[in-house]
Write a structure and sequence with these properties.
- The chain has 241 residues and is of the alpha/beta class.
- It has 2 domains: 154 residues, Alpha/beta knot (3-Layer(aba) Sandwich); 55 residues, Trp Operon Repressor, Chain A, CATH 1.10.1270.
- It is 31% helix and 18% strand.
- It has 8 helices and 9 strands.
- It has a 5-stranded parallel β-sheet with strand order 2-1-6-5-7, with helices on both faces. Strands 3-4 form a two-stranded antiparallel ribbon. It has a two-stranded antiparallel ribbon with strand order 8-9.
- It binds S-adenosylmethionine.
- The site of S-adenosylmethionine has 19 residues, from strand 5.
Length: 241
């Protein structure tokens, strides 16, 4: 029986082809096939008032390098895309000036039924896009990409893997880094038991589930203390402790 996807992503971009491999491979392709996730890609140029060249950019007022994506085609495109589904969804603008994407925000996004992702290019958008559409502005990190597409893909992947039924082993997102009290994941090992003198820790071969769980819990704290102390509460023990 066909059922409604748990989440629909509408992606607005000047480069729709970037997404063709992304949606047709691996877990995302499977989730789409199984009807759990829907991804619809829209070409912003289709809303260009310039019927001949489909231009959507112009130089910034006040001067400066590069071009900006214009307000008119962007607002009209978002309004049209919103109207394509009964749920207007939440509009997200991918921008380095937005709030940084972190796992709690991903968990919040995964509760949505529909997300509309707006990908910039060039020097970004005319600021009136933000004034008029009031999107949630999200950054992938403190660096500048050429466009919002890679950031949109990261957001889609991080979000869709939290949709119930998407991952084979339902427990795995719970144990992932940043999912349990913001801690990093413990180190993991698989066959062989020894390679070039590097052995799998004995405790993992012991079959004692309590000891394994305790070892893993301690490893998570130690790793987080060593690598990401900013993720531990101020009164957490130091690495040495
Ligand atoms: N002039 C902009 C600035 O300095 O903030 C950078 C524009 S960037 C070259 C072009 C587009 O890439 C942006 O509009 C945005 O959509 C996307 N982008 C770049 N870096 C990003 C990041 N860290 N997170 C999310 N999107 C990003």
């Amino acid at each position: 029986m066909a059922h409604r996807p748990s989440i629909r992503f509408d992606i607005i971009t000047l480069f729709p082809q970037i997404f063709s491999g992304f949606v047709s491979e691996s877990l995302l392709a499977k989730a789409i096939d199984r009807g759990l996730v829907e991804v619809v890609v829209h070409n912003l140029r289709d809303w260009s008032p310039d019927q001949r060249h489909h231009k959507v950019d112009a130089p910034p007022y006040g001067g400066g390098p590069g071009m900006l994506i214009q307000v008119e085609p962007t607002v009209e495109c978002v309004e049209a895309v919103r109207a394509m589904h009964e749920d207007p969804g939440e509009l997200i603008l991918l921008t380095p000036t937005g709030r940084r994407l972190r796992q709690p925000m991903v968990a919040d996004l995964a509760r949505s039924r529909r997300l509309i992702l707006l990908c910039g290019r060039y020097e970004g958008f005319d600021h009136r896009v933000v004034e008029i559409l009031q999107p949630r502005e999200i950054s992938l990190g403190d660096f500048v990409l050429n466009g919002g597409e890679v950031a949109a893909m990261a957001l889609v992947e991080a979000t869709m893997r939290l949709i119930p039924g998407v991952l084979g082993d339902a427990a795995s997102p719970i144990e992932d880094s940043f999912s349990d009290q913001d801690l990093l994941e413990f180190p993991q090992y698989t066959r062989p038991r020894e390679f070039r003198g590097h052995c799998v820790p004995e405790v993992l071969l012991s079959g004692n589930h309590q000891q394994i769980a305790a070892w893993r819990a301690a490893q998570r704290v130690a790793r987080t203390a060593a690598r990401r102390r900013d993720h531990l509460s101020p009164d957490a023990p130091s690495e040495a402790e």
